[in-house]
């Protein structure tokens, strides 16, 4: 039997935006320790599990997490102390039962997830396995292709771009280390191009540049030019992925481009815009192209473009098996964004991934805009084996920490490590529509 949990303790730390979040320390009777820090979003889906904040305006503008901290120290510790640290589903079932609400509103999904991740880490340490192997078994050897958010807009930057994320995807690299180099060299090339064009090279929440570009097309043009300047081939070596995060600019079933001058698009016009963009630029994936309640928008896009690009639901599903089931039944997308803190336990997140696997859908393990130096998602992406991670740009150490952890895992796996593009079947490769 895995060693029992001796104690749990939580405390308030700060995330990459300077806002409070939790760190949880799980100590086992055998002396092994697991430590985890909880991420936090800015463009959150309406149905996400509850992130418990104090609302005490005398501290951190109400964003303190001392209630969640005391829920770990006073309530969860009492229930979990003495329980075996594995299996993880028993730990998570105890947490879910102790909370007893649909959306983890009593204890807070941040308190619950911090414990869930810390216990997983402690159990992995106790078993002598690295976290990716503890969670993914001996066959876990696939390094994820990163989606790197090099131009930030929407709620992640104070600039003129309504789309939240323009990402580069170095899917044609031979291994993860080279993929990281492709990404970083493209990022640096983009820096020089922006600088030369007189744009700001300051960065947004996820480490991408946040220039006041005039149009979405200009962002895509600059990325293609940066890929070329880095000596790489757009489409084949490095493709583009978008996360418009359309819930953030949806108003009464229309889409209002308020940051770039108030153009208003209908669902059909937005669909046509995506169509044009994917034909003109080497785009392999679009996430949250429509608002979280616009299921018809997603369905239409998947029906018309799902055979050539990946259509990802993030706010649409909030990593919740209930919504993912609805998406699978209705053919709303062909992929799911997976965020541990949207649902609140490791086990429920694994279940969401398994639903994707059963439906032969793709899935992308993702960070949040508010991150910490915790690298749990790097191990988790390898453990889940889906071959995709979204972990931010090539600057800001909370983003690089994930990539650096993946380098470490790739070295540790040695010759059994696999790096393979999930996109060739979507037509982005040599047979696809790479621009000339
Ligand atoms: P968030 O955004 O972490 O600010 O919610 C990330 C995303 O929309 O993918
Ligand atoms: Zn998103």
Amount of helix: 25-40%
Contiguous uncertain segments of 5+ residues: 426-436
Computed structural class: alpha/beta
Compute the average pLDDT: 96
Net shape: globular
- Cofactors, ions and other ligands in the entry: 2-phosphoglycolic acid, zinc ion
Q: Oligomeric form of this entry?
A: single chain
Structure description:
This protein is an alpha/beta fold and 436 residues long. Helices cover 38% and strands 17% of the residues. It has helices spanning 66-80, 88-99, 109-127, 131-136, 176-196, 216-229, 267-280, 295-305, 321-330, 340-343, 346-358, 376-384, 397-413; strands at 5-14, 20-28, 33-37, 145-152, 165-169, 239-243, 250-251, 254-257, 263-265, 283-287, 310-313, 335-338, 362-366, 388-390. The strands form three sheets. Strands 4-5-6-10-11-12-13-14 form an eight-stranded mixed barrel, surrounded by six helices. Strand 11, helix 9 and strand 12 form a beta-alpha-beta unit. Helix 7 runs parallel beside helix 8 (295-305). Residues 426-436 have low confidence and may be disordered. Bound molecules: 2-phosphoglycolic acid and zinc ion. Zinc ion binds at residues 243, 245, 287-288, 314, 337.
Key attributes of the depicted protein:
single chain, 436 residues, alpha/beta, eight-stranded mixed β-barrel, three-stranded antiparallel beta sheet, globular, disordered C terminus, binds 2-phosphoglycolic acid, binds zinc ion
Outline:
The protein is an alpha/beta fold and 436 residues long. It is built from 13 helices and 14 strands. The model is unreliable at 426-436 (pLDDT under 50).
């Amino acid at each position: 039997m895995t060693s029992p949990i001796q104690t749990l303790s939580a405390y308030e730390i700060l995330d990459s935006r300077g806002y409070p979040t939790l760190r949880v320390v799980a100590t086992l009777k055998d002396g092994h320790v697991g430590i985890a820090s909880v991420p936090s979003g800015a463009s959150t889906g309406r149905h996400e599990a509850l992130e418990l904040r104090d609302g005490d305006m005398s501290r951190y503008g109400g964003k303190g997490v001392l209630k969640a901290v005391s829920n770990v120290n006073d309530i969860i510790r009492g229930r979990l102390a003495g329980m075996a640290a594995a299996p993880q589903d028993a730990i998570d079932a105890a947490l879910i039962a102790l909370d007893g609400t649909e959306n983890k509103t009593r204890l807070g999904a941040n308190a619950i997830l911090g414990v869930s991740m810390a216990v997983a880490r402690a159990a992995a340490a106790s078993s002598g396995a690295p976290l990716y192997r503890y969670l993914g078994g001996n066959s876990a050897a696939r390094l994820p292709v990163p989606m790197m958010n090099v131009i930030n807009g929407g709620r992640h930057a104070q600039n003129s771009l309504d789309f939240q994320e323009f990402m580069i995807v170095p899917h044609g690299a031979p291994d993860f280390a080279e993929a990281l180099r492709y990404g970083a060299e493209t990022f640096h090339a983009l820096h020089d191009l922006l600088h030369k064009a007189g744009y700001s090279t300051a960065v947004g929440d996820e480490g991408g540049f946040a220039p006041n570009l005039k149009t979405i097309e200009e962002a895509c043009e600059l990325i293609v030019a940066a890929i070329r300047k880095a000596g790489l081939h757009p489409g084949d070596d490095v493709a583009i992925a978008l996360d418009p995060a359309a819930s953030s600019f949806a108003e009464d079933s229309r889409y209002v481009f308020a940051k770039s001058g108030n153009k208003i698009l209908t669902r059909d016009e937005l669909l046509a815009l995506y169509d044009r963009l994917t034909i003109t630029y080497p785009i392999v994936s679009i996430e949250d192209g429509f608002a979280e309640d616009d299921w018809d928008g997603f369905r239409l896009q998947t029906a018309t473009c799902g055979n050539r690009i990946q259509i990802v639901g993030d706010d649409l599903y909030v990593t919740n098996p209930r919504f993912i089931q609805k998406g699978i039944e209705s053919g709303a997308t062909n992929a799911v964004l997976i965020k541990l803190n949207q649902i609140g336990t490791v086990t429920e997140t694994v279940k969401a991934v398994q639903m994707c696997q059963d439906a032969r859908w793709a899935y992308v393990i993702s960070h949040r805009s508010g991150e910490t130096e915790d690298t749990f998602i790097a191990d988790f992406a390898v453990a889940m084996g889906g071959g995709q991670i979204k972990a931010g740009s090539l600057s800001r150490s909370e983003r690089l920490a994930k990539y650096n952890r993946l380098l470490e895992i790739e070295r540790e796996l040695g010759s059994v490590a696999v790096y393979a593009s999930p996109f060739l079947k979507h037509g982005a490769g040599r047979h696809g529509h790479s621009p000339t």
